[in-house]
Write a structure and sequence with these properties.
Blueprint: H1 6-13, E1 17-21, H2 23-36, E2 41-46, H3 55-69, E3 73-78, H4 100-114, E4 123-127, H5 129-132, H6 137-144, H7 149-152, H8 156-163, H9 170-186, E5 190-194, H10 198-210, E6 217-221, H11 247-255, H12 262-269, H13 274-286, H14 288-303, H15 306-321, E7 331-334, E8 337-340, H16 341-348, H17 354-362, E9 366-368, E10 371-372, E11 379-382, E12 387-391, E13 395-401
Parallel strand pairs: 2-3, 2-5, 3-4, 5-6, 7-13
Antiparallel strand pairs: 1-6, 8-11, 9-10, 9-12, 12-13
Length: 405
């Protein structure tokens, strides 16, 4: 493999990163790689606690892809074993633990979605249960001897919980040690992560040194703020734009972000030519709405296609600008007669539960043929005349009676 020069690589690697520990060591590793023709091993740990990836995950995945494009080896670690511990990073309480089966299943989904950004054929995928699961209790004690409780409490979230008398389970101290053992096992040269992973990355660096391995370079990336403009993007907070959102939903969610996030989203999420990036930036001051439309089309095109992006824009304009129903709405058939609206919403999947369906109705979020329904006990007449049900801002359903022959 013919690598670019060290400086050319550093210019790309340093883009959009928060911190590199340390840049001098990274330069030496790159120089050695250039001399030997041997690629560096770049590690990214993936927490499979949730199967759905969102655009926040794409920030660090894009950095891993940059290393791939430079000719280095990308290693994606699915933390199926560490997921059974639960990563306490940035949390004020103990995180739920997953079963081995749940972690493996989520891990498969993670890799499939990550492959929309990574070169899947050139990505090494590993499951850390393959080595952590084989450690004996004596191995764990030996590992634990390399870190003190005082050093663990230097971690911000542990310190906050300790001071506020929130419980910290002993097994949570094992999480950064287990993640560090991944680096010991792989002997990787670089590890990537969000800024909330800095402590874990540094533990891996320390443990490699303790085990006589050249310490990894730690590179931290910015955490993407969600659509609410306040919190880190998270599906549990309801502010996430997911990889598997429909083109229409993805487009609409991007248009909903605060104007203050346009430049950040443009910088971190869009793989585009300089002139396109500059067009978005220039539009922010004069017309933020147009800037977001350009941004939304670019992002949808990356995950789907330019055609899907154009159709998503047309759908948005028809539904939200012109206030019309979408041109294509899925048809659902019910038995003739009367159906409780709450039951209909749950059957269609528009609401996860009857209580959620009632809240939607009470919040004026449900309409039939453009007429708002406010009665939680409302009944819907099912006959041969199709009706259009709108639930929330973006979900439409055509309702009609089952055909009898």
């Amino acid at each position: 493999m013919r690598f670019p020069t060290v400086q050319e690589q550093l210019d790309i690697i340093a883009g959009n990163v928060v911190e590199i520990i340390s840049i001098e060591e990274l330069e030496k590793k790159l120089q050695r790689s250039l001399q030997t023709g041997k690629p560096l091993k770049i590690k990214l740990g993936a927490d499979p606690s949730r199967p759905d990836l969102h655009l926040g995950h794409s920030v660090v995945l894009r950095k891993l892809r940059e290393f791939q494009d430079l000719g280095h080896e990308a290693i994606l670690i699915i933390g199926d074993f560490t997921a059974m511990i639960g990563d306490p990073s940035g949390k004020s309480r103990t995180r739920p633990q997953l079963s081995a089966e749940e972690a493996r299943e989520n891990g498969k989904s993670y890799f499939e979605q990550a492959s929309t950004i990574l070169d899947a054929g050139k990505t090494t995928i590993c499951y850390n249960a393959d080595w952590l699961g084989k450690m004996s209790f004596a191995d764990v004690i030996r590992l634990s001897s390399h870190y003190t409780v005082a050093r663990m409490l230097e971690r911000d979230d542990f310190e906050r919980r300790y001071r506020s008398k929130e419980p910290i389970s002993i097994h949570e101290f094992l999480y950064p040690l287990a993640q560090g053992m991944d680096s010991v096992h792989l002997k990787n040269d670089v590890e990537l992560g969000g800024t909330d992973q800095k402590f874990n990355l540094l533990v891996g660096r320390d443990l490699q040194r303790e085990y006589g391995i050249a310490p990894q370079i730690c590179i931290t990336m910015e955490l993407l703020v969600g659509t609410d403009g306040k919190e880190k993007m998270s599906k549990s907070l309801g502010n996430a734009i997911c990889f598997n959102d429909t083109p229409g939903d993805m487009y609409g969610k991007i248009l909903s972000i605060p104007d203050t996030l346009i430049e950040t989203y443009n910088r971190l999420l869009v793989r585009q030519k300089a002139e396109t990036r500059n067009r978005v930036i220039e539009a922010v001051g004069n017309n933020p709405r147009e800037a977001k439309r350009t941004l939304a089309k670019e992002i949808v095109a990356q995950y789907y296609s330019p055609v899907a992006a154009r159709e998503a824009e047309e759908h948005f304009d028809r539904v939200f600008v012109q206030k019309k129903a979408p041109e294509h709405i899925e048809l659902f058939e019910f038995e003739k007669g009367m159906v409780l609206l709450v039951d209909m919403l749950t059957t269609l999947g528009a609401a996860a539960s009857k209580s959620e369906a009632r809240r939607m109705i009470q919040q004026n979020a449900v309409a039939i043929d453009e007429e708002k329904i406010t009665d939680v006990n409302a009944l819907v007449t099912i006959d041969d005349t199709p009706k259009t049900l709108k639930a929330g801002k973006r979900r439409f359903y055509r309702i009609t009676a089952k055909k009898t022959f």
